[in-house]
Design a protein that fits this description.
Layout lengths: L1 E2 H5 L10 H11 L5 E7 L11 E4 L4 H14 L4 E5 L7 H19 L4 E7 L10 H14 L5 E5 L7 E4 L2 E5 L4 E4 L18 H8 L10 E3 L1 H4 L8 H11 L7 E5 L4 H16 L4 E5 L3 H6 L9 H4 L11 E4 L4 H13 L4 E5 L1 H11 L1 H19 L4 E5 L9 H25 L5 E4 L1 H11 L4 E9 L2 E7 L9 E4 L8 H9 L4
Parallel strand pairs: 2-4, 2-5, 3-4, 5-12, 6-11, 6-12, 10-11, 13-15, 13-16, 14-15, 16-19
Antiparallel strand pairs: 1-9, 3-17, 7-8, 8-9, 17-18, 18-19
Helix pairs in contact: 2-9, 3-4, 4-5, 8-9, 12-17, 13-14, 14-15, 15-16
Length: 499
């Protein structure tokens, strides 16, 4: 058993850094030309660590124009999230989508806004890596002539128990224990499995040797916290920038992170490296953007804040659960046990897939219609929990796994959309990454939204749709792999009128 305190004992204490110090450094760099981070979020859960930022589920040039205008007119911190949902796509589709988004963002910026690009992915290392950073770098180079010197890889998500120490990525457990992430259920993912917890070796594994582990630049806590003895963040910033000097031709750079101060130290170092001329691209977990732009940690939203400015519907709320990880199933079980007045409706995945394969779309559509009717009836009386059956249909074929996931997600989307058009719910919670993405973009038809903040400290974001049929309905994006067993219950209780 590895204890976090024992691992950290070999490194300096953290350097205390106010968020405003980072925000001021970012503002100084953007004094002449406004600078915006475009965050390509491979599922919508990346927004759970930020507040008051624009979110797009579409990426036409006019969508970016809306976002850049929103930033300018509201003087918000300069980042916009783009919901790519690429974790549910095959590699070719993911590559094409990344390229299209980057080209459209650059077109909308048209020299009036300086763009940086963030490839936001999973803190448990699942996703299209190194494909997505490769495509972003190639597209930027083709459109602007600017090469990418380094790809900074920061999967850490301390709020959810994911930390990187000594170049090794861990999941934090009870009593201060650490488990290397390759030893968790996430490493066995059917589409994105991996074998290495040491980040440099993970990079070599995923790049199939294109980036040998020995060529990866590792910013360990000795560098991130270089100014610890003097509590001077400028020392750390210089040490980080110095370490990045050799980066060229998309050199992978991995960073240790344990606390928010580590994120801020890294941000100051990256600012210094970019001031020296380094061109960097980021592949990160959820909290990186908050630290990178110098945003304060937003306290969890209250029940009143969740509905601020909107009159809640008299209908019940809708909790949609698609994720199959063990934590989600435990959270679902806790909610159904605690919220006895809510009706629980299951979407039978085996029946859905069998119907699609044998009788075509008609039988599957008829089955979905029955589910919708049951959901609407339930919403007239209170909250309804809609979940896919807990038996995960597995296959060793990654493409087949994604196809099954899409079929199930399409059914969930249809249920949400038909319900919305008939009897809008008081709120919608979507549990699971692909589920949250599809429910947002297609089920609720959200095109533009503002992420208002977290429903729980550091995790689970609330979006306010600013257009479309879901305008005025709080939408809660809840990752499958965050929180404790009671977290889904806690969020539902904040929003429900009958719990």
């Amino acid at each position: 058993m590895t204890l976090e305190a024992d691992v950290l004992a070999a490194f300096p204490e953290e350097v205390q850094i106010p968020a405003q110090l980072v925000a001021d450094a970012v503002a100084a760099s953007a004094a002449t030309t406004p600078r915006v981070l475009v965050v390509l979020d491979d599922d919508p859960t990346g927004t759970q660590s930020v507040a008051d930022l624009a979110v797009l589920t579409r990426w036409e040039v006019e969508d970016f124009t809306w976002a850049f205008t929103h930033i300018r007119e509201n003087q918000t911190q300069a980042a916009v999230y783009v919901l790519t949902n690429t974790r549910s796509l095959d590699p070719a589709e993911a590559a094409a989508r990344n390229e299209e988004i980057v080209r459209n963002a650059l077109s909308a910026a048209a020299g009036t806004v300086q763009l940086g690009f963030v490839s936001r992915s999973d803190s448990t290392l699942r996703g299209h890596y190194p494909l997505e950073p490769d495509v972003i770098a190639a597209t930027v180079a083709a459109a602007t002539g600017e090469p990418t010197d380094g790809v900074v890889i920061v999967p850490a998500f301390p709020d959810a128990g994911r930390v990187t120490i000594g170049g090794v990525h861990y999941m934090r457990g009870d009593a201060g224990t650490l488990t290397p992430v390759a030893e968790t259920e996430f490493a066995k993912d059917a589409s994105f499995g991996f074998k290495n917890s040491e980040m440099a070796k993970y990079v070599e594994e995923k790049s199939q040797g294109r980036f040998p582990a020995g060529d990866v630049i590792v910013l360990d806590l000795n560098i991130i916290r270089a100014g610890a003895s003097a509590q001077d963040p400028t020392i750390s910033a210089k040490a980080i920038a110095d370490a990045l000097e050799p980066a060229t031709n998309s050199t992978p750079i991995v960073a240790d992170i344990v606390t928010e101060n580590d994120f801020r130290a890294l941000a100051l170092g990256l600012e210094e490296a970019e001031r020296r001329g380094k061109k960097l691209l980021y592949r990160v977990g959820p909290p990186f953007v908050r630290g990178r732009i110098g945003q304060e940690i937003r306290t969890a939203l209250t029940s009143e804040e969740a509905f601020a400015g909107n009159t809640p519907s008299t209908a019940g709320g809708m909790i949609v659960v698609g994720s199959h990880v063990g934590l989600t199933t435990r959270q679902l079980n806790d909610l159904t046990a605690a919220h006895s007045s809510a009706r629980t409706i299951e979407i039978d995945v085996e029946k859905l897939i069998a119907g699609t394969e044998t009788a075509g779309e008609a039988e599957a559509d008829a089955y979905i219609g029955t589910v919708v009717s049951d959901v609407i009836d339930a919403l007239h009386h209170g909250d309804v929990i809609v979940h896919t059956s807990r038996l995960l249909i597995k296959t060793d074929d990654a493409a087949a796994s994604l196809k099954i996931a899409r079929t199930v997600s399409a059914a969930v989307v249809a249920v949400v959309n038909r319900t919305l058009k008939t009897f809008p719910p008081r709120f919608v919670i979507a549990k699971g990454g692909i589920t949250s993405s599809d429910v947002a973009a297609h089920g609720l038809e959200i095109r533009h939204a503002i992420v208002r903040g977290p429903m729980l400290p550091g995790i689970v974001s609330l979006w306010e749709p600013v257009d479309g049929p879901a305008k005025g309905i709080p939408y809660i994006v809840f990752a499958g792999n965050v929180g404790d067993d009671q977290s889904l219950t806690e969020v539902t209780r904040k929003l429900s009128a009958t719990f």
